[in-house]
Every structure is written in C-alpha cells, then in structure tokens.
Specification:
The chain has about 325 residues and is of the alpha/beta class. It folds into 2 domains: about 120 residues, NAD(P)-binding Rossmann-like Domain (Rossmann fold, 3-Layer(aba) Sandwich); about 170 residues, Dihydrodipicolinate Reductase, domain 2. It is about 35% helix and about 25% strand. The protein is built from 11 helices and 14 strands. The strands form 2 sheets. The protein has an 8-stranded mixed beta sheet, covered by helices on one side. Strands 3-2-1-4-5-6 form a 6-stranded parallel beta sheet, with helices on both faces. Helix 1 crosses helix 10 and helix 4 runs parallel beside helix 5. The chain is globular. The two termini are about 35 Å apart. The structure holds nicotinamide-adenine-dinucleotide. Nicotinamide-adenine-dinucleotide binds next to helix 1.
Length: about 325
C-alpha cells in the first residue's frame, strides 16, 4: 500500500481543516466522507473532491474501500464508533479526546487490543511543544518540580449554537477543560512521561447559557511529584498566547504558541529537536504521523493508550470541583 485511502467521518468544523491539510500529505487520498447531515456531507465532498459520500457510518464500514477512518464526530459517539471500526479491521484516527469519559476510555483500551487507534492530540507534533517535551524527556532540565499551563481562549455563542452537543456534559463530557485544556495538559503529561496521581479542580461557567464549564482552574500531581497547574478558558475577551512553563532543577522551558509556536530554554543549553514528520502545521504532521504508522509501521506519537493519563487528570479535576477536595486519580481498569 503506497497511499492511504482515508474516509472522513463527521464533516464539521475540524474535518474541514483536516481535509485542507491532507492535501499536503502526499500519501493520503480522501476516498470517502460521511455525515448524518446529507447536505453537509455532499457539500464537503464537492469542496474536497471526495468521490464517495455516505450518511450511514456502518454502511461506510461495510462497503467502502477505505483503508482507515478519521473520526471527527461529537465526543459521545467516539466510544461506539471506534469500536465499530476496530471490528471492521480499519485503523482509526479519532479526534481528541479518546472518549467522553475516563470509564469509557478504560473499557475501550481493553477492547481494542493492539488495533491501530491514534488520537489527534496534534500539539504533540507542534514544533514548540515537541522541542519542550524532548528537552524534558532528555533529562537536561533535571527533575521538573512545577509546570504551569495557560490557555486564554475566546469563543462566541455561535460556537455552541452551531454545534449544540458542546453544551451538555452528556454529549461533550465537559467544556473548556476537556475540549481545549486537555490538548496542553496532554503535552505536559506526555513530556513528563508520567501518570497523574491526584487532582484538584475548580470549574465554572461565567459566560454562556450552557451546562459545561467555560473556565477551569486545576492542579494535577504526578507520580514523581511534579505539580502541574492549568487554566483553561473560553471566556477571555481577546484571545491571548497559550503558554506552557516547565521549571526543572537545572533549567526552565517556556513554550508559547504566538506569534508562531516556539520554546525558550533558560539556564540549560539544549538543542531544539524537530517533530518526526515534515509539515507546515501540527495538524498536518499529526495526520502524516498516523498515515506513516498505518502504511509503514513508523511509531506514531499519539497511540490511544498514551492519552489515558490526560483523561484521568481531567476526570479527577471535574470530580474534585464537585467535592471541593483533592482526589486520587486511578488509571487502572
Ligand atoms: N484537534 C483539534 O484541534 C480539534 C479542534 C476542534 C474539534 N476537535 C474535535 O473534533 C471532534 C468534532 O468536533 P467539531 O468541532 O468538528 O464538531 P462539529 O459539530 O463541527 O462536527 C461534527 C460533525 O459530525 C456529524 N455527525 C454527528 N453524528 C454523526 C454520525 N453518527 N455519523 C457521521 N457524522 C456524524 C455532525 O453532523 C457534524 O457535521 C470532537 O472530538 C472535537 O473535540 C478537535
């Protein structure tokens, strides 16, 4: 197989970007798309020159020539749709988070065995995040005592009206913490190569008439004792720079996503490593990484099992926000 025939399932917001960057990944051929909204699927197919259109996912799995599926559907559908694709022996590139809840993720990991299921936490392929992670993993910064993550983003009411599933815990699993914050918390836990052991969270909805959190603060402690504090917001008046700061015993690393993704090292002389795929954008590199995993067995940075720690941390923070106390985090089935 020299090209990957990929079916896009869910022709909404992120699928549009993925279809766009897929044009820059020569091994990817968009062979089919699927959406329960027929008009949306047809418009998407036309715009992206996709030859086959489906409105029924099971029919796509049974009859299409796709080698793999990219799932860009609401969170509450991830569990069943990943399972169905595994049963159909299709490798899966599922949008983050792996599932809506930690319990679903634990069950899914047991069920999928060694099937190729990757999760699109694409910031692992961001040039700055990758360099930060490799610096931490190399030990050059020494033990990381403390990390601080800030995601001061902005959303309009149209974000919830255009995709109403974002509004409820039953459909989304949560709000800004699981949807946006989990991207960068995932980078931190992956960089540390650590599991969370306890979490505290305080989430609120200071803006928007929705059930889910639109502002979240929290602290996660890892097995080796790093404290990670995270602030995730979609209520910032003007969207600001995302930062990840890592404070180690020998040096400091500061990541910022603006004006372009970059990392600065202070107190330690570190060569910045580049992500293992070429590309102009992290989403492109992540898709290229998944494609190379399926076609050439090249290790992919985001296999499903490696995203359990972030879901466990998020779950702990949500539970703690209800009880008001620090809670243990358990990754075991
Ligand atoms: N990686 C990123 O940076 C990033 C950015 C945005 C969203 N996402 C993730 O992508 C996923 C989708 O988010 P979105 O913002 O694109 O949502 P969206 O609501 O814009 O799109 C979802 C699409 O799925 C379709 N759909 C629903 N049920 C379906 C079914 N059974 N079969 C086929 N299609 C179905 C909907 O009609 C809709 O078109 C979520 O997991 C989200 O967290 C990731």
């Amino acid at each position: 197989m020299t090209k990957l025939n990929l079916a896009i399932v869910g022709c909404g917001d992120i699928a549009g970007f993925t279809a766009l960057v897929s044009k820059l990944v020569p091994q990817v051929n968009l062979s089919a798309c699927c959406d329960v909204n027929k008009e949306r699927a047809e418009t998407f197919a036309k715009k992206n020159r996709i030859p086959k259109v489906y409105t029924d996912y099971n029919e796509l799995l049974e009859t299409s020539q796709a080698d793999a599926v990219y799932l860009a559907v609401p969170h509450y559908l991830h569990y069943e749709m990943v399972l169905a694709a595994v049963k159909a022996s299709k490798p899966i590139f599922v949008e983050k988070p792996l599932t809506r809840t930690l319990d679903e993720a634990k069950k899914l990991i047991q069920a999928i065995g060694d099937a190729k299921v990757g999760v699109n936490y694409q910031y692992r392929y961001d040039s700055g995040c990758y360099a930060l992670a490799r610096a931490i993993q190399s030990g050059a910064l020494g033990n990381i005592h403390s990390m601080r993550i800030n995601i001061p983003w902005h959303r309009e009411q149209s974000y919830f009206e255009g995709a109403a599933w974002h509004k409820t815990i039953a459909h989304a699993g949560g709000g800004t913490l699981i949807t946006q914050g989990s991207h960068f918390l995932d980078v931190a836990l992956w960089a540390l190569d650590e599991d969370p052991v306890s979490a505290m969270g305080y989430v609120k909805t200071p803006r928007f008439e929705v059930e889910v959190d639109t502002l979240a603060h929290g602290i996660v402690e890892t097995r080796r004792g790093t404290l990670i504090s995270v602030v995730s917001s979609m209520v910032t008046a003007n969207e600001q720079t995302v930062t990840i700061e890592a404070y180690g015993e020998h040096g400091t690393a500061i990541y910022a996503d603006r004006p372009f993704p970059h990392v600065k090292f202070i107190g330690a002389n570190i060569k910045k490593e580049r992500p293992p795929e070429w590309g102009v954008h992290a989403l492109q590199r992540s898709l290229a990484g998944f494609t190379n995993w399926v076609l050439n067995d090249k290790p992919f940075l985001i296999p499903a099992v490696s995203t359990l720690p972030v879901l466990a941390a998020v779950d702990g923070m949500y539970r703690s926000s209800v009880t008001g106390s620090r809670l243990q985090v358990n990754l075991q089935p």
